């Protein structure tokens, strides 16, 4: 039973008049009659009872009518969704975000993307860099905002978006809060709250070791917000990317002798085409930051703490 034939049956069941039903379907009455007869042969019994000047559904016709209506409605819905998808009215962007990225910066990127591609529904998934790379290669993500301290997989294409420094976060009452900056040596003996998913953990540990500083582990967690909350409560300090702070009450101070930074990239799979309108390049462009207006200052790390420094596509690579 084809969808076209089911449409003929529904027209006839609603009008109970084959000539009017044929007109609704844009066919001749003999054509519609032959289709109905074909359906009746397939089902093994009449669907309509034809009497003097009247036509009505048989018991079989009444039984199959709601089922055929449901099939036709579902088919129309699928076609509509497909049409909307092709026009970018119902498509979505599956975007991975590294779990240690704060929303302060990538929120602005997504805002620009939505302004350029208003019909796109954005689906966000947070994960570690290794997991994001895996999801990208498997085709489960269209793109990812992430940092990879080592070289990216050969099939992945990173495009720099912005650079953010690693700062030391502390509570307002901590001695570090009264200073403009600290040194790695100042970290010696500090109660430290460890961000388990910090991708620069080994780099930070190496700088601490070189400075002869040993941390006193106080707590560790995969939850960035928990660590920040505990720091703000005065439980200890932590290294934190400057745009990742979401907890109120945090004080951030730069490390003057270890200007460690990471470069956040928009990562896609090389050679893979974006779906629908995204293929034309509008989406990747909208996800890029504008060029930095102060590249020299950015490269030197001269950016006010807490300032949303737009468009850092330059600066020290992590």
Condensed summary:
The protein has 318 residues and is of the alpha/beta class. The protein has helices spanning 3-15, 18-25, 29-43, 59-86, 103-116, 129-138, 201-211, 224-232, 282-286, 295-300, and strands at 48-51, 54-57, 92-98, 121-127, 143-146, 156-170, 191-195, 216-221, 238-241, 251-254, 261-269.
List keywords for this structure.
single chain, 318 residues, alpha/beta, 7-stranded mixed sheet, two-stranded antiparallel ribbon, disordered C terminus
Can you put this structure into words, describing what you see?
- The protein contains ten helices and eleven strands.
- Residues 276-282 and 290-318 have low confidence and may be disordered.
- The protein has 318 residues and is α/β, with parallel strands linked by helices.
């Amino acid at each position: 039973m084809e969808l076209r034939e089911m449409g003929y049956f529904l027209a006839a069941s609603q009008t109970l008049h084959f000539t009017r039903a044929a007109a609704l379907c844009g066919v001749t009455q003999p054509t519609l009659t032959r289709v109905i007869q074909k359906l009746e042969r397939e089902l093994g019994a009449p669907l309509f009872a034809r009497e003097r000047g009247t036509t009505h559904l048989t018991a079989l016709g009444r039984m199959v009518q709601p089922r055929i209506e449901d099939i036709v409605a579902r088919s129309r819905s699928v076609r509509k969704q497909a049409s909307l998808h092709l026009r970018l009215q119902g498509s979505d962007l599956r975007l991975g975000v590294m779990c240690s990225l704060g929303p302060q910066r990538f929120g602005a990127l997504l805002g620009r993307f939505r302004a350029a591609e208003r019909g796109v529904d954005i689906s966000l998934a947070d994960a570690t860099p290794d997991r994001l790379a895996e999801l990208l290669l498997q085709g489960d993500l269209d793109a990812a905002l992430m940092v990879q301290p080592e070289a990216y997989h050969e099939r992945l294409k990173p495009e720099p978006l912005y650079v953010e420094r690693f700062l030391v976060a502390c509570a307002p009452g901590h001695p570090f809060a009264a200073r403009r900056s600290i040194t790695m040596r100042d970290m010696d003996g500090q109660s430290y709250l460890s961000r388990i998913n910090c991708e620069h953990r080994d780099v930070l540990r190496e700088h601490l070791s070189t400075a002869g500083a040993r941390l006193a582990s106080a707590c560790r967690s995969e939850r960035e917000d928990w660590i920040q909350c505990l720091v703000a409560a005065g439980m200890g300090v932590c290294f934190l990317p400057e745009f990742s702070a979401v907890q109120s009450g945090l004080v951030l101070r730069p490390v003057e002798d270890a200007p460690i930074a990471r470069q956040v990239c928009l990562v896609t799979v090389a050679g893979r085409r974006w779906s629908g309108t995204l293929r034309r390049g509008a989406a990747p462009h909208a996800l890029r930051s504008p060029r930095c207006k102060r590249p020299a200052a950015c490269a030197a790390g001269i950016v006010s703490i807490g300032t949303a420094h737009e468009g850092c596509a330059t600066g020290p690579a992590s």
